[in-house]
Amino acid sequence: MKEQEITVQNDIVVTMLHKLRVDGEIVDQSDPGNLIQFIQGIGQVVPGLENALYGMQVGERKKVVVSPEDGYGEKDQEAYAEVPIREFPEDVPIEPGIELILKDDEGDEQEAYIVEAVDDLVRLSLNHPLAGEELEFEIKIVELREATKEELHHGHVHHA
Hints:
By secondary structure, the chain is mainly beta. The protein folds into 2 domains: 3-72 and 130-154, Chitinase A, domain 3, CATH 3.10.50; 80-125, Thrombin, subunit H (Beta Barrel). It has helices spanning 47-53, 149-154; strands at residues 12-22, 25-29, 36-39, 61-66, 80-84, 99-103, 109-118, 121-125, 135-146. The strands form 2 sheets. Strands 1, 2, 3, 4 and 9 form a 5-stranded antiparallel β-sheet that branches. It has a 4-stranded antiparallel β-sheet with strand order 5-8-7-6, with no helix packed on it. The protein starts with 11 loop residues before the first strand and ends in a 6-residue tail after the last helix.
């Protein structure tokens, strides 16, 4: 397939510029030296954005609004934990917004974020920081190519 004929479809490596706003505030953006790159159709970006990309071509721009259900989900009010501050290593700053990787007894990892520290307890959220938020993306497709068999097998883009 010639590059100009390729459109975003499953198993295509998408390289794009993006700007993400939440409540009008920019919370993430790429620049020409730091592009997002992923394989379309395997869930590497939120579903609402992935669905909006189908059929786009190189050079095309689009604004996409993604609801919480099609983004990082609604906030789960049960997905909080309180942990004694003494259980944290001394080198971990106990500040709101700090991301932590927690391991359970089986070695499985889960992301958590510090919400607050009160007295001797640290309150953690197990929700994604953008859970419950409407996501406003501005995107531009920079490059499209077919994913290699190896990339599809491994489930991620390989860089040269």
